[in-house]
Design brief:
Length: 160
Amino acid sequence: MLRAEGGEVCGLFVNPNIHPYQEYRRRWDTLAQYAGQMGLSVIREETYPLEAFLRQVAFREQERCRHCYTLRLTQTARIARDRGYDAFTTTLLYSRFQKHALIRSVAEEAAGSEGVPFLYRDFRPGWSEGVRLSREIGMYRQQYCGCIYSERERFHSPHG
């Protein structure tokens, strides 16, 4: 969508929330393969800073999404600023399962604190088409948001 609007796009993989590490690697490998096919450059943290995520959400699990979004979107805004990009946005706005209004609010706060504009777009109208295309090309599709809490919510049954 952004390329169709004439934008130059660079991806960024900032996901200290993803657990376990094998899931983190699988998502990175999927993105790297897709980016190669699409001619998309992608920046990735060289470390797996799970501890940073855990420190933000420990004892604040009910607000974990806000803290996770803040951690990731502030880092995104900082990288965009440091590298001289005109703006930043997030693929979190593509998911029907994410907290869209909260993402927008946190991203606008990060934009203000880091001094780089946040480019808001509601990418959800492309959800069904994206699912269809990803299945056609055999892309790995994650089954939960990424954090240990969302993994538990997705797979743990309290009754067995």
